[in-house]
TrEMBL record:
This is ELMO domain-containing protein. InterPro entries: ELMO_dom, ELMO_domain-containing. It comes from Phaedon cochleariae (Mustard beetle). Residues 140-296 form the ELMO domain. Pfam families: ELMO_CED12 (PF04727). Signal peptide: none annotated. It comes from the Eukaryota.
């Protein structure tokens, strides 16, 4: 009830406050945000909120247009520059902002647009990979699977395609393809990225998964963490991380980096919890997710795996 009253008051009071501040400062809300907020997450989130709350028909049409572009993954390359130019021009016109006087606003606001709709486009890219089933008849898919083995087990050759050796890196049976059903090709791509880009930390985590008491299935846990990374991305919780970490249009690489951080940190958290057996996985994962969500509430959130990783 209190929340509803607050929303109602905000709906009517907010325009009055905005009008008053515009008259006293000579700046619209978007300008005040771009000039007053810290760059990165704080500024981008504030711009995003301001745009979504706008009652301007032109602004709402712009949002719909940008949503359509990002959902269809057309926000890229030379097209990106044209889209940004058009979006900024629309806001300059609607808000009656002189770009020659407020040239810094043009740059800052354009960067916010790039990140906001780049994030939305990233969700579409990740979803496309998630819904692409691993196909053992696809040579590219099979190549990635063999590369995963080579990165994690460089000193040991596979006896064949179907073998119990896959269990050494945490798959459930003799053929890994059945374990990718939930997250599709995204699960494999994440594991391969972690094992390739962060080879030493991945080896470190793999060795922990073989612990005689606290061991777990490396690949299966990795695929579960792909699911967690996807949920955090889709519900918007990961915005702080992406907005603070991406210097240009967010790409699938930044999602893989986010996943790698989650895997590395989950391994540490798992060992700290000292589980009695693997049956505690669900409860420990839930606690870990809560911790991550709390960290992501910080608009300045920017995760790094650690110095050992950064130097790899």
């Amino acid at each position: 009830m209190n929340f509803s009253i607050w929303m109602l008051l905000s709906y009517y009071i907010r325009p009055i406050v905005k009008w008053f501040l515009r008259r006293t400062t000579g700046l619209c809300e978007l300008q005040r945000v771009c000039y007053g907020e810290i760059s990165g997450g704080p500024r981008i989130k504030a711009v995003e909120y301001s745009l979504l709350m706008s009652r301007s028909m032109q602004i709402q049409q712009l949002i719909t247009h940008l949503n359509n572009i990002s959902d269809n993954q057309r926000f890229t390359g030379a097209n990106e520059r044209e889209i940004l130019r058009g979006a900024v021009s629309t806001v300059l016109l609607v808000k009656k902002i002189n770009p020659k006087v407020h040239f810094q606003f043009v740059t800052s606001f354009g960067k916010c647009i790039e990140q906001i709709w780049g994030y939305r486009q990233l969700i579409a890219q990740v979803e496309e990979l998630r819904t692409t089933s691993f196909d053992s008849e696809n040579a590219a898919h099979e190549k990635k699977l063999y590369e995963l083995w080579e990165r994690l087990m460089p000193q040991e050759k596979l006896d064949g395609r179907i073998t119990k050796q896959w269990q050494d890196i945490g798959f459930q049976g003799e053929d890994p393809k059945t374990d990718f059903r939930g997250m599709g090709l995204l699960g494999l791509d994440n594991l391969l990225f972690f094992a390739t880009e962060y080879r030493a930390p991945a080896q470190h985590v793999l060795s922990h998964s073989h612990h005689p008491v606290y061991g777990y299935c490396f690949a299966i846990v990795g695929i579960n963490l792909t699911s967690l990374a996807w949920v955090l991305m889709k519900d918007g919780s990961a915005k702080s991380y992406v907005y603070n970490s991406s210097r240009s249009l967010p790409s699938i690489r930044i999602f893989h980096q986010f996943y790698s951080y989650l895997f590395y940190e989950f391994d540490r958290f798992w060992l700290e919890c000292k589980p009695k057996d693997i049956m505690e996985f669900s409860s420990i994962k839930s606690r870990f997710e809560n911790n991550i969500r709390v960290s992501l509430l910080d608009t300045n959130a920017k995760f790094r795996i650690g110095i050992t990783v950064d130097n790899v």
